[in-house]
Amino acid sequence: MIDGKPLMRSMMGERIWSLMQSDPEEFKRETRAYFARGYPGWTVVKVKYPIVYLRDERGRQG
Predict the structure, then answer these.
(1) Taking the CB of the first residue and of the last residue of the chain, which one, N or C, has fewer CB atoms within 10 A?
(2) From what superkingdom does this record's organism come (predicted)?
(3) What tens digit of pLDDT does each residue of 36-54 get?
(4) The predicted structure's pLDDT at residue 61
């Protein structure tokens, strides 16, 4: 939980995970892009193989 709200747990393919060691910046870009397409309005907050933790940002005003 972050800010008292539960996080959603999800997974992604090995192609992206393989970038974690070889190209960390590309791993971050690919991870964000993957979840932006699949879960619009959710933000990646933590990754720990094989789980990616997402926070629901839908409806939040900045």
Answers:
(1) C
(2) Bacteria
(3) 999 999 999 999 999 999 9
(4) 59
Residue type, 43: T
Which pTM was predicted?
0.85
Residues 16-35 pLDDT 10s: 999 999 999 999 999 999 99
